Amino acid sequence: MSDYQRDPSWWQASDGKWYPPEQAPPTAAPNLSGGFCSNCAQPMQPQAAICTSCGFARNAADNYCSVCATRTTPGQAVCLNCGSSLIGPAAAGSAQKDRTTAGILAILLGSLGVHKFYLGRTNAGVILLLVTLVSFCCGFFLLFPWLLLAGTGVIGIVEGVIILGKSDAEFQEIYVRQAKEWF
Fold first, then answer.
1. Sign of CA dihedral 123, 161, 152, 101
2. Contact predicate 47/58, CB 8 Å
3. Nearest to 42 by CA among 21, 20, 61
4. Count of C-beta atoms within a 10 Å radius of residue 58
């Protein structure tokens, strides 16, 4: 389709394509056995990890509520139809992390990358840990490594303050669901 104004009843799938209203998936009653695909709203079997209708992984998209199959908008935190959380572990597909724990780990042990390991960012955690250890070991002989050591400490403190300054919902969206690496 071209970029002309579409009728409001058209809907856009996660693949970016627009579909007319007659092709829109129907809103269905809650499926307590396995939920619904968050991409195409088709019922899913409880043990299914991938939707057999569209091929998306369970809860990989945010077009529909996986509990009641109601249409949602990107970034929506709660389903307006059934009230289920759209950003928690059920929707994000990963474990929920505690904002306060991550922030305190970043402030106290941030130069060692402990908060990165807690958030599942292994590469970033290893980088901070290696820079800190190499800086500490070489710092007895040179001035420059002490600057790197101070820099990793500042990174930890700044990230801790940023994390603690976010709301719980923002933290879950940015650091858990979107998996933001740095700052």
1. negative
2. no
3. 61
4. 20
Dist. CA 30–CA 36, nearest whole Å: 8
pTM above 0.85, yes or no: no
Name the residue among 178, 13, 10, 5 with its Cα closest to residue 94. Answer: 178
Question: CA-based diameter of the chain, in Å?
Answer: 73
For residue 12, what are the β-bridge partners? Answer: 18
- On whether the CB atoms of residues 119 and 131 are closer than 8 A, the answer is no
DSSP 154-168: HHHHHHHHHHHHS-H
Residue 139 neighbours by CB under 8 Å, 6+ apart: 145, 146, 149
Amino acid present at 50: I
Residues 145, 157 contacting (CB under 8 angstroms): no
pLDDT 10s digits, 88-144: 543 344 567 888 999 999 999 888 989 889 888 889 889 888 888 888 777 666 667
Spatial neighbors of 20 by CB under 8 A, at least 6 apart, are: 9, 10
**Which residues lie below 8 Å from residue 125, measured CB to CB, with a gap of 6+?**
113, 114, 116, 117
